[in-house]
Amino acid sequence: MSETTTAAEVAAPHRYTAALAADIEARWQDFWEEKGTYEAPNPKGDLAGDAELVARPKKFIMDMFPYPSGAGLHVGHPLGFIATDVYARHQRMTGHNVLHTLGFDAFGLPAEQYAVQTGTHPRVSTEANIVNMRRQLRRLGLGHDQRRSVETIDPAYYKWTQWIFLQIFNSWYDPEADAARPIDTLVAQFEAGTRQTPDGRSWSELSDVERANVLGEYRLAYASDAPVNWCPGLGTVLANEEVTADGRSERGNYPVFKAKLRQWNMRITAYADRLLRDLDALDWPDAIKLQQRNWIGRSEGARVDFPVGDEKITVFTTRQDTLFGATYMVLAPEHPLIAGAEDGDGTGSLVPDAWPEGTHEVWTGGHATPAEAVAAYRKQAASKSDVERQAEAKDKTGVFTGVHATNPVSGEQVPVFIADYVLMGYGTGAIMAVPAHDTRDFAFARAFELPMRCVVEPTDGRDTDPATWDDAFASYDAKIVNSAGSDISLDGLGVTEAKAKITDWLAARGIGEGTVNYRLRDWLFSRQRYWGEPFPIVYDEAGVAHALPESMLPLELPEVEDYSPRTFDADDADTQPETPLSRNEDWVNVTLDLGDGPKRYRRETNTMPNWAGSCWYELRYLDPTNADKLVDPDVEQYWMGPREGQPHGGVDLYVGGAEHAVLHLLYARFWSKVLYDLGHVSSAEPFHKLYNQGMIQAYVYRDSRGIAVPAAEVEEHEGGVFYYEGGKVSRLLGKMGKSLKNAVTPDEICAEYGADTLRLYEMAMGPLDVSRPWDTRAVVGQYRLLQRLWRNVVDEATGEVTVVDTEPDDATLRALHKAIDGVAQDMANLRFNTAIAKVTELNNHLTKAGGPVSRTVAEQLVLLIAPLAPHIAEELWRRLGHTGSVVHADFPVADPAYVVDETVTCVVQIKGKVKARLEVAPSISDADLEAAALAEPAVVAALNGAGIRKVIVRAPKLVNIVPA
């Protein structure tokens, strides 16, 4: 016996240990890969296969695209992957053709930043990360169809990302069809004269540049000069969703400023109503649906024009009934009517050269001229995030523009301000301020000593003089007052009636109309980065954008010496992007023949955002080897087409984090709808059922400086005091990660206990949709479950199977079929923690019963645990004499006769205190149960002759007696 061999190992050489688990797991992983166990056949194409499997009901199960980080996986990452694997395995065993695979969302900023730091090409580091992540995931025994795995950085993949972009670029949204249509149909309307050009000229009279500009106002993908979030510290622009609440970049924490740049956008706003409407048919968490509805932000109201000299300011309001109470106006600092004011020339603006006579001192901000005041305030506002600008608690700031507008219902002249609490991203970027009935307007009016007029009669006891109020009065359930003009009066009307009347009045005079507004803005689609999909767009000498033909796709990224966009002083807002691609002149300037002879063109030097590749990857999983089409229509129809209960089609189960509620999910829905409208797919929604898994958390330990210290090296002393290298440290539950020094890798747990133990522990920690703390010490509980399971089938001394071919007793049959029934329900509803509890209960019953286990029971127990712990299940299934894989074995079916208990325990209470317990039939009636309870000697004794006022019966488990 060697020094490292224990006596227990000598006595039980075939015991289930980490070493045996590692051997079993490696062998079966090799077997599954060699045999293509998890390959899901398509109905046709290169991946067509087993006709019997294709004839089964299908199930398409997906995880959200992982990013291949250089840090590799920690135990928190696989939670969702293991859950979908368990579910997919159960679905296979219940007769489904299951498509389950995993790819990699591999473009993005982390790899580019690593390239900048090290000089390593992003592709090299990213591919190395993918190799490592594949190794880690394989070790977990995940049943993925590896033939279908994709990587967004593969040119064969992003060829189709570029192709989809061109479908969107070459489309417009036809309101009459309520759908996207090819841009050629719009051109045909202009050519035929059935649709007028903006200036009324015929289409043939327009130049190429003019035609391009007209079409750009309709295209679903378009370039425009628009306000963007410019981050000098990163050298790129960011989408609104990538900016934190305090106006800094989500990545790097750099300041973000408002700037006007020419960028590509997606006209997602055209789909706002459909994106809202179709949510109703999706099986998604209510919280996610609510977030999408709030992000889209549909509101009904009216558009109203306020004249200002020869110009007009257009506002959108949901309270047009309060027009008579509008005593001033506010524009967003970025509003185009005041653009150019910072240059002092007033070009395209309303800003005059001097303050009007009698201008209130507090309105000027201490500046000598309106242009100076506006310029200074706009610079100040550019350094704030939208969230900061709209914070309710902050002091209201602003400045007078120097002009007055005319209230169209009263004729009153009202001053026009700019203030940062008004955003260009909502409505028209201008508001009519009704301070008596809006809290923010009330605070602004008080700060700038502006008048207020009550036009909605208070119902809370206050009088109608706003000067006496502490805050605005806002109500939809009140009468309109003080709202009569020369030819219209709203006095005495309710809010709804007043809104309808004033809307009709505005429309009749051509100064407004009822309309719908959305919070949703068009999707900023340009990034000033290298490591992203190149746009398949070139520009001619006149600056007109041209789409590359499909034959020139994919347009691959060129080699560059410097991967970094030019970055600037993080606080320098007066800078412009310079992209890495723009420095490669040989690639940027090209001669191409786009159908009208060779010409010189300039390529687009921005790249697509990292969201592009994940907007459609579910489609490529279906048909990943198809070089001729995005996806074969029959294959797409088979896996994702509409069916009963899924009117818009989509993936059957999509699991991922709730943090993607409005980014990835909204963008993917938009792309799906465009592709559906254009006839490329049959599914109008990408994901029918969505499930958000919780997060695995871990304790973060910090020293007196607030710096995280290695969790593995912290010692716990009595009283819950923690020490690291002799010093006291604090402990707080939070995220798990390398930077927090609390990460535990799956490799560590697999080495110590085996992958099946890790799988069981992560599924047993609690409900899948709830966050839970990681505790390495608790892993051993699931390890012991597998050891007991192994001992119930295999002799630890000889390695021989110990099951017997005898029928189990009645108690064991009941325990077995109750477990089968419960586990089946739990599996179907993703309740894996309770499924494991039921398997454990059955296994414990067999252990306590002693003696050899019946083969019938052992086999069904192995099948029950197979989705959860596939390696040990496969090994035991083979040792039990089966030649086929347990992966495709039938899941057990419960016998109803054994599921129902022969008796159940009924608790009898008197005044809420338990006095007796009765064993009764599950089907006992209320009357019979009441009679049995009242006849029970212990109950008779407890009542001691007292009368009975009431008996509450909840058959078969409860009787509650209330004495008189």
What secondary-structure arrangement, pairings included, does this model have?
Blueprint: H1 7-11, H2 18-35, H3 51-54, E1 58-63, H4 79-93, E2 97-100, H5 109-118, H6 122-139, H7 155-169, E3 171-174, E4 179-182, H8 183-192, H9 208-216, E5 221-231, E6 236-238, E7 257-266, H10 272-277, H11 286-296, E8 299-308, E9 311-317, E10 328-331, H12 370-382, H13 386-390, E11 399-406, E12 413-418, E13 430-433, H14 439-447, H15 495-508, E14 512-517, E15 523-524, E16 537-539, E17 545-547, H16 585-588, E18 589-593, E19 598-603, H17 617-622, H18 633-640, E20 653-656, H19 664-677, E21 690-692, E22 696-702, E23 708-709, E24 715-717, E25 721-724, E26 727-734, H20 746-753, H21 755-764, E27 772-773, H22 780-791, H23 810-828, H24 832-849, H25 855-865, H26 870-879, H27 896-899, E28 904-910, E29 913-920, H28 926-935, H29 937-943, E30 948-954, E31 958-963
Parallel strand pairs: 1-2, 1-20, 10-12, 20-21, 22-27, 28-31
Antiparallel strand pairs: 3-4, 5-6, 5-7, 7-15, 8-9, 8-14, 10-13, 11-12, 16-17, 16-19, 18-19, 22-23, 22-26, 24-25, 25-26, 28-29, 30-31
Helix pairs in contact: 2-20, 2-26, 5-6, 20-21, 21-22, 23-24, 23-25, 25-26
How would you describe what is shown here?
This protein is 31% helix and 17% strand. The chain contains 29 helices and 31 strands. Helix 2 (18-35) crosses helix 26, helix 5 packs across helix 6 (122-139) and helix 23 (810-828) packs parallel to helix 25. A hairpin with a 2-residue loop joins strand 25 and strand 26 (727-734).
How many E-type strands? 31
SSE class: alpha+beta
Question: How far apart, in Å, are the first and last alpha carbons?
Answer: 77 Å
Q: How many domains comprise the coordinates? A: 4
CATH architecture annotation name of the largest domain = 3-Layer(aba) Sandwich
Rounded radius of gyration (Å): 35 Å
Q: Number of helical runs? A: 29
Beta-strand residue percentage: 15-25%
Overall geometric form: globular
Largest sheet, in brief, is: 6 strands, mixed
Mean pLDDT: 93
Relative helix content: 25-40%
User: Ranges with pLDDT <50 over ≥5 residues?
Assistant: 342-348
What is the CATH class designation of the largest domain? Alpha Beta
CATH topology of the largest domain: Rossmann fold
CATH homologous superfamily label of the largest domain: HUPs
